[in-house]
Amino acid sequence: MTARPLTARRAQMVSCLSCQLLSPVAAGRTHCSRCGSALSPRKVNSLSRCWALVLASYILYLPANLLPVTISTSFGRHPQTDTIMSGVIYFVKTDFWHIALIIFVASICVPLLKLIILTFLLCSLQLGWCKRPLERARLYRLTELVGRWSMVDVYVITIGVGLVKLGALSNFEAGPGAPYFAALVILTMFAVESFDPRLIWDQMEESQ
Ligand SMILES: [Zn+2]
After folding, report:
1. How far apart are CA 24 and CA 74, in angstroms?
2. Around ion ligand 1, which residues have CB less than 5 A away?
């Protein structure tokens, strides 16, 4: 049987989340001596904050996808509203399939994928599941990786749709679904950030 690896926690140390400096727990410091950040062995209330943000994001996912995100008006015509999905269908029909694919992946698949992965990770921790920690840590890294492109989602919809339709239209503006979509993107980013992946390994250590 291999020896358990030494972690900051087992060595009675606390790692600064900002600069990674190790400080002894016994010293009783509340702030990092190097960068001044608040010290905590794990992200504070990680699970409850992540659950709250994930649930709020699921709620926002509905109006973000069901309400129109764009309203376009052209001279002498009725305003035309588009949801994210009807925008995707519009681009498929007009042979801009590559833009349709980018919007579909960035705006429909990515937020949902992040929420499903976070829900799975939260459930696995709440149920005390100790199996496959490496795979779960990799799943979390995947949400961090796609999270870096999250802000692109908002621009893809607003600028992408606007540019393509611009030639034929006199006016183009954000619809009532757009603020919900922007809030969804921001909350999922905070949800990913609030999750502490070290809890996966803590649980495995505690079970041994
Ligand atoms: Zn620090």
Report:
1. 66
2. 16, 18-19, 21, 32, 34-35, 37
